[in-house]
Design goal:
82% of the residues lie in helices and 0% in strands. With 147 residues, it is an all-alpha fold. Keywords: Membrane, Transmembrane, Transmembrane helix.
């Protein structure tokens, strides 16, 4: 892979991190001031989703930033570069799988079926992204720059 491909992956990942923040903002604005029913369970659950999407946005932007930082400032070994790229791609896929059904459902007014399965896979991609990006940095530090 060359630098332009890594740059493209990083830009797409950063844009999807922004989509995650936009989803968090959309969900935050949907929380009513006085929840119906009085107990606020639905509002609290929506608040948890807001925090999750904001956190995923931060992680995704971090993965994109690490990919750009390491590939542009240093000349990492191929293993480190692949892990960082895999981490960024996994972060992107997590946003698509987690925010996609919510945004499609909001725009179309329909409930997207299979949401529990999609959410499980999306949360798995969040973890894969964190692990791969972390291992990419570890391998970069341990192996040093490529000769």
């Amino acid at each position: 892979m060359n630098i332009s491909r890594h740059g493209t992956v990083a830009v797409v990942t950063a844009l999807l991190g922004g989509v995650s923040f936009a989803t968090a903002a959309l969900l935050f604005t949907s929380i009513p001031d006085t929840p119906p029913g009085g107990d606020g369970f639905a509002a609290g659950l929506t608040g948890i989703f807001v925090i999750v999407f904001a956190l995923i946005g931060v992680l995704t932007l971090g993965e994109a930033g690490l990919l750009v930082l390491v590939t542009s400032l240093w000349n990492p070994a191929e293993q480190s570069r692949r892990l960082l790229t895999t981490g960024a791609v996994a972060g992107s896929l997590s946003v698509v799988l987690l925010a996609g059904p919510i945004l499609v459902g909001r725009l179309s007014g329909m409930l997207v079926t299979g949401f529990a399965w999609i959410t499980s896979v999306g949360l798995l991609f969040v973890q894969v992204g964190i692990v791969c990006s972390g291992l990419g940095i570890v391998f970069r530090v341990v192996n040093g720059p490529r000769a």
